[in-house]
Every structure is written in C-alpha cells, then in structure tokens.
Sequence to fold (413 residues):
Amino acid sequence: MPGAASRPARTALSMIKRIRIAQLREGMYVHKIEGSWLEHSFWRSSFAVKERKVIESLRASGIAEVWIDTDKGLDVAKAASGASATDVDAPSGEPARIVLPGARATLGEEVAAAKKVYAKSRVVMRSLFTEARLGRAIDTGEAEALVDEIANSLQRNPWALISVARLKTADEYTYMHCVAVCALMMALARHLGMDEREGREAGLAGMMHDLGKAKMPLDILNKPGRLTDEEFAVMKGHSEAGYKMLLEMGGGEVALEVCLHHHEKLDGTGYPHGLSGEQISRYARMGAVCDVYDAVTSNRPYKKGWDPAEALKRMATWDGHFDQHIFHAFVKSVGIYPIGSFVRLESGLMGVVVEQNEGSLLRPKVKTFFSAKSRAYVLPKIVDLAQSRSDDRILGPERPDAWGIARVADFLA
Ligand SMILES: [Fe+2]
Fold:
C-alpha cells in the first residue's frame, strides 16, 4: 500500500516535537528540556505547563528549546489560537519565581533559628558519641527530637540549616558531620518525592550513620594526617560497629540499613559487603551521596574542604559510585552552585554564592568581592542574577586558592 507508506507513522515518537521557548504556552506538556541535566537540573524531566510563571522561569534559566508531547498537551498551532495562550514574547517585567513548597522564610530570616538548632545539635551529638564511646546505653530520644527541629527549619527555608552546617570546625567533624548528613538526607528526600515520614526516617538515619566511629581508636579517628592502609582498614569497621550498636538499642530498619551500607558503591567496589546496584537500598544510596558531599566539602585537620560547586562537579564524574537519579535529585536539593561556592561571572567579577533563587538554580545571589581582570579585591556587592538586568551570569566554579583567596567563608556573613 504505497499510500499508507507515505503517511507519517503515528508513533509515540511522532508526538514529541522540539520547539523554541518563545513558542511554549500554557496547556502544553514538556517532555524534555533541551540541554544537559547540569544546566537545567532544577526541572523535572517532564511536566504539564499549567501556569505562565513556569514558562517565565524556564526562560529566566536561559533555556532556549524544549521538547513537547502533543499527545499529553496542546500543539503549537492550537495553543497559539487558544484562549489560554500567553504571549511570553512580550516584555513581562521581572521573571516570576516558583516558590518551593514549605519555603516560608527567607534565608536571612531562618539563619538565626538554624544556628540555634545547630548549637543544640552540637551538645546532643557530642554527648551521644561520648556515651557510645564509653559503652553506656544510648537514648536516641533527643536525637529524634533534633531531627524534628531540623525538619522544621528545612520546611521554613530549605537552605539555611545546610549552609550553617558548613561552618563545622575540624575537631567537631565526627559528630557534626552526622548533623549535616541528617539535614542533607531530609532535603534530598523531599526532592525524591518521599513523604514526611520517609523524610524523617532518612534524617534520623543520617544522624546515626557514623555512630560506629565512636568505637574507633581515637588515635586513628583524630589523626591529623592521611590514614595508612592499615589504619583505613580499621576505620572501615565503623559501618558494622555502628550497625551492631543500633541493633542493640532497637534502632529502626532505615537507620540500620544506612549505617551498615552508606559506604557501598553502585559498581560493587564499596564496603563492607561489596553490594552492587539494586542490592543497595534506596536509603543507603541516598546516604552515600550525602555522606561523601559533606565529607569532601568539610575542612579536616589535614585537608581543606573542596568548594561545594567544585565538589558536585567532581562527584558527577565518579562513574559507578552513586545512583545517578539520586545524585541529580541531590544537586537540585543543594543547588547547582550551593551556598558557599566560589564562582566567576561573565563580567569578570568573582564571588561567593550567598542565596539560592528558587525559580532558577543557575541564577543565585552572589556576593562579588574579587576581580578576575585585575586579580584584586573589589568592594563587596550582592548581585542577584535572577533579578539583574545586566545579563551577567555564572561561567562556572573556581578554586579560591588559585586566586590567592584563603577564606571564602569570610564573605558569607
Ligand atoms: Fe561512614
């Protein structure tokens, strides 16, 4: 039948078409955003366009093209003549923001409360680790109450406590790392679509994941230098030591699982059991990402922490280590350029990311304080890349030490 062969086949693929962002209208269904995940990590892979502000936020993110599914939403011609079409080519003032659910306080408003929760965490976790080291019975009630307080802080503002937790000192690393992982786990759970109960279980698991370090020899745990192979082999025992302690105290299933398997890797090269792929539970895979991110970005006695954005960039290249879906959700939860990242702008100015913009993770607020052109400090200034009309944008993360800058954190306050 020659006639049939000339007709376009009505396959699922034929319903997907690429359009310019200027053609995108309410009522369309976005199948895929054009470009790499890193550039547009904020966005779900597919969604219905129900509001004009979604289109404006896509445009504000610098996205030029999208793929639409005309089976699930309007086509270009229909949308153009439809009553609900919105002319986004016309100047629309400041780009609208999408407010994440639960973001009820600004970063500035929440930081003071987050600092209080963090200070309380220090007392509770230091005591919990001390009791564990002494072999005394541990009451996790206070830690569970802390998880609730951290959850409430994240609910009011998703970034305040995570940025405060970056300020841990090297000597309190072991237990404050657990607090940071708790907050990161809960933020990640939300971006994975988990419900509140699952999120809090993930948080408590993060809080307890390194409890076994309380049983490690202090000279190895606090060694001010890199561990030898033998010492590292001893330290690897912390997963199983923590698991046993949690088991004895009647810890929950999720906490037990994360405690035992947060050092497993997707390709089977992790420890203690060399599990691979689906053998590693979802919670343990979440734990692996949050644990590594906080570990590599923290200052240690023998090593300066990596810049947060640089850490994400490097972690993205570690084939076989992390679950990619979970890693991408993690990037959405902390931001492509997390608070505290040192970045270079197209204008030549350099500075530190001080606040995220919910509608566009590519356009955070940056406090500029250095000029790449003159290689000199300049008067600090807050540049809101989502609001700025100067068309400035982030070129990428930079290593502060390469520019002779010792403490980026000094410019965070
Ligand atoms: Fe660990």
Residues 107-133 form the longest helix (27 residues). Residues 342-411 form one domain.
